[in-house]
Design brief:
Layout: H1 6-14, E1 30-33, E2 41-44, E3 50-54, E4 56-59
Antiparallel strand pairs: 1-4, 2-3
């Protein structure tokens, strides 16, 4: 007989699985909505580093707006 600690499984599910931001539903992919043209916009350096964005990050899975903390490193 296997014994499964359900509280441990719930904690594992609630913890982010990577260093990436994630939605409460577990999704880690977002799209920007509602920027200046109705769609999101991203500002990037020539080497591909994102320096700013316009719009609201929304989960691609459930559509929920997500508040992201931007790194200042």
């Amino acid at each position: 007989m296997d014994i499964i600690d359900l509280n441990e499984k719930r904690r594992e599910r609630e913890e982010p699985q990577s260093e990436h931001a994630s939605c409460g539903c577990g999704e880690a992919w977002f799209e920007l909505r509602g920027g200046p043209t109705g769609n999101g916009a991203v500002c990037m350096t020539p080497d591909g580093c994102i320096t700013g964005y316009a719009g609201t990050p929304c989960c691609v899975n459930c559509g929920k707006p997500v508040t992201l903390r931007l790194s200042t490193n």
